[in-house]
Amino acid sequence: MDRTYCLLLGCIFIAAIASQTDALRCYNCNNLDDNGCDDPFSSASELTGCVQCVKVKGTKSSLQVVARICAPERLPVNGCESKTEQGITGEACVCETDLCNSSVRVAASATLLMILSFYITVHLM
């Protein structure tokens, strides 16, 4: 995946969240760059200094995206939510324990689903 898109996605993600600090370890990957990130999960790099761990999974047409993210600031949710918007079906999960974003289901918000929509749209262009 183009690093510019990753940077843009990261900026949007950070701009969409509220602040609070904690120090968790989270997996950080996406299945477009790392086959180990897909479900079933096998491996990924870890980041420390996270406040929450996030896992987003979505599909548009035949493209499936799985991303595991370290949230550097607190999101207003904890748990999972599924939603379909603009032809993208996805689930976003937020959790607050070390390496918790490895599981198939880990809470979400409309903000996370908006980010997932952007992420998949960018990769279809």
TrEMBL record:
<dbReference type="GO" id="GO:0030431">
    <property type="term" value="P:sleep"/>
</dbReference>
<dbReference type="Pfam" id="PF17064">
    <property type="entry name" value="QVR"/>
</dbReference>
<dbReference type="InterPro" id="IPR031424">
    <property type="entry name" value="QVR-like"/>
</dbReference>
<keyword id="KW-0732">Signal</keyword>
<dbReference type="InterPro" id="IPR045860">
    <property type="entry name" value="Snake_toxin-like_sf"/>
</dbReference>
<protein>
    <recommendedName>
        <fullName>Protein quiver</fullName>
    </recommendedName>
</protein>
<feature type="signal peptide">
    <location>
        <begin position="1"/>
        <end position="23"/>
    </location>
</feature>
<dbReference type="GO" id="GO:0032222">
    <property type="term" value="P:regulation of synaptic transmission, cholinergic"/>
</dbReference>
<keyword id="KW-0325">Glycoprotein</keyword>
<dbReference type="InterPro" id="IPR050975">
    <property type="entry name" value="Sleep_regulator"/>
</dbReference>
